[in-house]
TrEMBL record:
Entry annotated with the keyword Protease: yes
Localisation: Cytoplasm
Domain AB hydrolase-1 as annotated: residue spans: 43-299
An MF annotation (GO) of this entry: aminopeptidase activity
Root EC class: hydrolase
Keywords: Aminopeptidase, Cytoplasm, Hydrolase, Protease
Broad class of the protein's primary localization: cytoplasm
Species: Methylobacterium ajmalii
Membrane-spanning segments: none
Family: Belongs to the peptidase S33 family.
E.C. designation(s): 3.4.11.5
Protein name stated in the entry: Proline iminopeptidase
Gene3D superfamilies: alpha/beta hydrolase (3.40.50.1820)
Length: 318
C-alpha cells in the first residue's frame, strides 16, 4: 500500500480468547482478545456509554503486531446485568480497566477510545498515567456542561429540526427545558413500554445525527429496542450525573498526560462533539498529533476518520 492510499479496516478477525470477569458489585464484564498473543498490548474503549463492542472494532489494529483487548462496559453488550445503572460510574469503569489490564498480564497498553470512549480514555490516562503507552482519541468528548447542552438542549436542534421534533416528542412540553432530566424520568419509569419508547427516541436521535450524510444502514441498529434500552439508560444515567466529574475536569487536567504520545482524530462536522474541544485538548496536550478530518462527522466508519485511525495504530505499532 502506498503512503498516500487511504487506510481501511484490516480483514475480519475472530477472538483468540474471550471470557467474563466478575468485577464485583454484581457486575460481570465480557472481554475478548484479538491479534497475536504477546504482540503490542492495546485496549479498545467503545462509545455510549452503553454502546458495546462490535466486530468492526477488532479491525482497527494490525493483527500481526497487536494484542488487543476489547470489552463491553458495565451494563451493555454481553456484560451483565444488562442495562443496569447500579454501581455504574466512570470510576467503576476506570477500575474495571485496571482489573482487565492485570488479567491481560501487561504493565502498559495503548488506549484507543472514541466519543464516550475518548472520555473514559482520558479519565483513565489522567488517573493511571504510567499504564498508558500511547493514547488515540476519536471524536473527543470532554464532557462539559456546554457539550451536553449543545447536543441535548439547543444547538444541534437547529441543524436537524425534523429529527429534534421526534426526539422531544415523548417529553411533556413543561419538561422540555431540561431534556436530560426529562428523559431520566422516562428511562427509569416503572412501565417497561415507556422505557422502550423513550430509549428508542433517545438512541435514534444519536444514530441519525452522527454521520455527515444520512446512512440508513448505519442508523438502523439504533432503532433496535434491546440495544436502545442499554444505550439510552446508561448514556442518560452518566449525563445526569455529569459522569461523576467536575465541569471541565478533563481539559483542566490534560497536563497530566504530558509525556504520553498520542493522536486526536476529529471530524470537522462532528455534531455531538464540537471540534473546538478537541483543539483545546491538543493545545493542552502537546504530545498529541491533531487531525481534523474535513467532510466527516462523528462516526468511526466515515472514510477519512477511519483512515486516520488506522494510520495512528500503524504508527504506534512499533
Amino acid at each position: 500500500m502506498s503512503a498516500d492510499a487511504a487506510r481501511t479496516m484490516y480483514p475480519p478477525i475472530e477472538p483468540y480468547e474471550s471470557g467474563a470477569i466478575d468485577v464485583g458489585d454484581g457486575h460481570t464484564i465480557y472481554y475478548e482478545r484479538v491479534g497475536t498473543r504477546g504482540g503490542k498490548p492495546a485496549v479498545f474503549l467503545h462509545g455510549g456509554p452503553g454502546g458495546g463492542i462490535n466486530p468492526i472494532h477488532r479491525r482497527l489494529f494490525d493483527p500481526g503486531r497487536y494484542d488487543v483487548l476489547l470489552f463491553d462496559q458495565r451494563g451493555c453488550g454481553r456484560s451483565t446485568p444488562y442495562a443496569s445503572l447500579e454501581a455504574n460510574t466512570t470510576w467503576h469503569l476506570v477500575a474495571d480497566m485496571e482489573r482487565l489490564r492485570r488479567h491481560m498480564g501487561v504493565e502498559r497498553w495503548l488506549v484507543l477510545g472514541g466519543s464516550w470512549g475518548s472520555t473514559l480514555a482520558m479519565a483513565y490516562a489522567q488517573t493511571h498515567l504510567k499504564r498508558v503507552s500511547e493514547l488515540i482519541l476519536r471524536g473527543v468528548y470532554t464532557l462539559t456542561r456546554a457539550e451536553l447542552d449543545w447536543y441535548y438542549q439547543f444547538g444541534v436542534s437547529e441543524m436537524f429540526p425534523e429529527k429534534w421534533e421526534r426526539f422531544v416528542a415523548p417529553v411533556a412540553m413543561s419538561d422540555r427545558g431540561d431534556m436530560i432530566s426529562a428523559y431520566r424520568k422516562l428511562l427509569t419509569s416503572s412501565d417497561p413500554d415507556v422505557q422502550i419508547e423513550a430509549a428508542k427516541a433517545w438512541t435514534i436521535w444519536e444514530g441519525e445525527t452522527i454521520t455527515l450524510l444520512p446512512n440508513p444502514d448505519f442508523s438502523a441498529a439504533y432503532a433496535d429496542g434491546r440495544f436502545a434500552l442499554a444505550f439510552a439508560r446508561l448514556e442518560n444515567h452518566y449525563f445526569v450525573h455529569n459522569c461523576w466529574m467536575e465541569n471541565g475536569q478533563l481539559l483542566r487536567d490534560a497536563g497530566r498526560m504530558k509525556g504520553i504520545p498520542g493522536a486526536i482524530v476529529h471530524g470537522r462536522y462532528d455534531m455531538p462533539c464540537p471540534v473546538k474541544n478537541a483543539y483545546l485538548l491538543h493545545k493542552a496536550w502537546p504530545d498529541s498529533s491533531f487531525h481534523i478530518v474535513e467532510g466527516a462527522g462523528h462516526a468511526t466508519t466515515e472514510p477519512g476518520i477511519l483512515d486516520q485511525l488506522i494510520r495512528a495504530t500503524d504508527r504506534f505499532a512499533v
